[in-house]
Design a protein that fits this description.
The protein has 327 residues and is α+β, with helices and mostly antiparallel strands. It has three domains: 3-99; 105-165, Signal transduction histidine kinase, dimerisation/phosphotransfer (DHp) domain (Helix Hairpins); 174-322, Histidine kinase-like ATPase, C-terminal domain (Heat Shock Protein 90, 2-Layer Sandwich). The protein is 60% helix and 14% strand. It contains six helices and seven strands, in the order αααβαββαββαββ. The chain has a five-stranded mixed beta sheet with strand order 2-4-5-7-6. A two-stranded antiparallel ribbon has the order 1-3. The chain is elongated. The structure holds adenosine-5'-diphosphate (ADP).
């Protein structure tokens, strides 16, 4: 939000509470004085007829009445202030979300534009027969395939997110062994990993757990974590995929040695559209939906996703899922 606009709104907000408060207080003081004067005049007229005790009680009654009115005014003002504060907070949240949405639209457009441009450029170069070297042709075709895959992934993410927003996402949960899901996600990302020189270490410990899961959705969640590990790895080329058990939970961990997530952003990265402000050397492509989807999928499976720092560098994303006991 623009800071001048914010300052103006805060000023209007304060004025709209302070002016009525000052006017009401002034009126109350004025009324109080007038009433005291009236009481004094009345008492002077009938001085002899009243004892000191009666005079005192008239004053006390009048003070009490004013104290009561004063409290009522303060209460009314506090309620007004509180309601205005709540409305103000709502307004701020809506306005932040509107900002994020508009950033999201421009991000998505940019994310669609970039692969489309390179697909178009390489396809046209090949179609015009300008490249004769078969090795170069293969390189161009690989780029086209990679960029198309990136496009498809982005479109899938936006569609999945829009389903969630409309409450239309449905998961078909079935008893499923977890290992094949991890293997499928690893296979899906293998070509991209190989192309960029990554090594994926898979370390599965304990006996193969069974979970109640929608295999496609869970594969998508693991894939999103692996894609992020790749995107935010900086110069490191090692990613680990762990699976282990802890009590009645199966834990899938995706560990990278990349740029890491600063502690102050570790909760926010799961919010829709949120992206950590670009760090040097990081691949900044993305629209801030991958982890929102992972969190949604984890919750739909009765589980959760967590992040912590890896030592000496990088992050550990843990997908924690309740295990099913097989009969
Ligand atoms: P996207 O990657 O499209 O921006 P995500 O929702 O997947 O969206 O991630 C949100 C943000 O969390 C990213 O923009 C990035 O800043 C941070 N992040 C996610 N995964 C990692 C990771 N493995 N290492 C460092 N930062 C990460």
């Amino acid at each position: 939000m623009d800071s001048t606009a914010t300052r103006r709104r805060v000023t209007i907000f304060l004025i709209s509470v302070l002016i009525p408060a000052a006017v009401l207080t002034g009126l109350a003081i004025q009324l109080y004085r007038q009433q005291q004067k009236l009481i004094e005049q009345e008492l002077e007229k009938q001085h002899d007829a009243h004892t000191a005790e009666q005079i005192h009680s008239v004053y006390r009654e009048s003070n009490l009445r004013f104290a009561f009115y004063g409290c009522a005014v303060v209460l009314a003002l506090s309620v007004t202030l509180f309601c205005r504060y709540v409305v103000w907070q709502d307004y701020r949240r809506d306005s932040e979300l509107a900002d994020l949405r508009s950033q999201f639209v421009s991000h998505v457009s940019h994310e669609l534009r970039t692969p489309l441009t390179s697909i178009q450029m390489f396809a046209e170069t090949l179609a015009l027969g300008r490249v004769q070297d078969p090795e170069k042709q293969r390189g161009y075709l690989e780029t086209i395939a990679r960029e198309s895959e990136r496009l498809a992934r982005l479109v899938d993410q936006v569609l999945a997110f829009s389903k969630i927003e409309q409450g239309r996402s449905d998961y078909r949960l079935q008893l499923t062994p977890l290992t094949p899901i991890l293997e499928a996600a690893s296979r899906a990302i293998e070509p991209s990993l190989a192309q960029q020189g990554f090594t994926l270490r898979r370390i599965y410990s304990g006996c193969a757990p069974t979970v109640r899961a929608d295999a496609d959705a869970l594969e998508q969640a693991v894939l999103n974590l692996l894609i992020n590990a790749m995107k935010y790895s900086n110069d490191s080329r090692i990613i680990e995929l762990h699976m282990r058990q802890s009590g009645s939970d199966a834990i899938v961990e995706v560990i990278d040695q990349g740029i890491g997530v600063p502690a102050e952003y570790r909760e926010r990265i799961f919010e829709k559209f949120f992206r950590v402000p670009a760090a040097d050397g990081a691949d900044t492509s993305g629209v801030g939906l991958g982890l929102t989807l992972v969190q949604h999928i984890a919750a739909a499976h009765g589980g959760r996703v967590e992040v912590r720092g890896n030592l000496p560098a990088g992050s550990v994303f843990s997908l924690i899922l309740p295990m099913e006991q097989q009969a």
